[in-house]
Amino acid sequence: MDQKRLEKYANLIIQAGINLQQNQTVVISSPIETAEFARMLSEAAYEKGAREVVIDWNDELSKKIRYMKAPSELFDEYPEWKKQFYQFYSEGGAAYISIAAEDPELMKEVDPDRIMRAQKVANKANKKFRNRLMSNENTWNVVSVPTVSWATKVFPDLAPDQAVESLWEAILTAVRVDAADPVKAWQNHKNNLETAIYWLNKEQFQQLHFKNSLGTDLFITLPKGHIWTGGAEVSQQGVDFIANMPTEEVFTLPHKRGVEGKVVSSKPLQYNGKLIENFSMTFKEGKIVAFTAEKGYESLKGLIETDEGSAYLGEVALVPHDSPISNAGILFYNTLFDENASCHLALGKAYPVCLENGTLMGEKELEEAGVNDSLIHEDFMIGTSDLIITGIKENGNHVPVFTGGNYAIKW
Predict the structure, then answer these.
(1) What is the Cα 299 distance to its own chain's centre?
(2) Sheet of 377-381: strands edge to edge?
(3) Is the pTM of this model over 0.90?
(4) Which of 7, 99, 139, 409 could join 95 in a cystine, given CB atoms 3.0 to 4.6 angstroms apart?
(5) Tens digits of per-residue pLDDT, 271-284?
């Protein structure tokens, strides 16, 4: 891959992704396979005025060995130093970059109970840190870089080096790196998303009804004072940043107890190194009361049963079927990309920023307002080319939002 294009990508992440401020610390979470790009990010950050760049390395192969060989009780423990690591830098105002690049099926031989227990204890230990990010107290950004194992899953008919090159091309196209001025291209993209956001916030639908030929027939109540957002976000310090690159979605939060009906997945969900495929969930008074999966049932079960809030929804996001990532026709097996090719929902914690004054509320106030809380936040895809979404107003009027998988209104 051309070095100059990678440098443009790294600079885009620093300038537009986290919008690095002078003398700010940057914490990068990176697989060891993407070390070269992590170092490139580090260099770009220092050149932009970072005080310090801290890299939190991870190795999924070592993680698998640990899951397979370590004593069972280890997965109910979480080191205090790791908790302090996240709290120390976040409370100091650090910006966070996470490189999301995993082998979609690496953990298929691992006991899902071990994974779920480890995930639960880690999320519980780091709840304060996660709450900071979901309330935009720190700027943060999630991006992707190819690894051989991931690339060969996406492009199984290509030789490994060709698969990596093809995945690089898909990623760089999706994040607009080849624009003459990528930062300006992202500003234009954010402005386009603002059109949909403005309309949805003006309409203030009481409910959304999702329906398609896969079997989705779902009513989602939205809380009073809900806020649609997307593209750029704003930290509590007033700094614009882009949480996900790429991003094609606009999203808000559902009322915790206001989801009724059935939803059917339209793409596989990669979760903790395992694939969950062809799954469905039935909701009553907001809670999942039944679910199925052709593949990965135990992983889905563990996800839903993580805690009380993981059986409720925390996000509803709209993405046109006729959008750049969807039109690329690539199944990425990576939620960062697949969620931006499809309307999606999320199990678990809701973003307080999606409710008027939500970031100023305590846990009890948020609960009373219908804002779900959980140790997890996991997106899954439901959009199709025949998806119909109808907005229902407080006066009972029905307004088309999506027809044929796309916005019913032409902006």
Answers:
(1) 18
(2) 229-230, 250-252, 313-318, 344-348, 377-381
(3) no
(4) 139
(5) 888 899 999 999 99
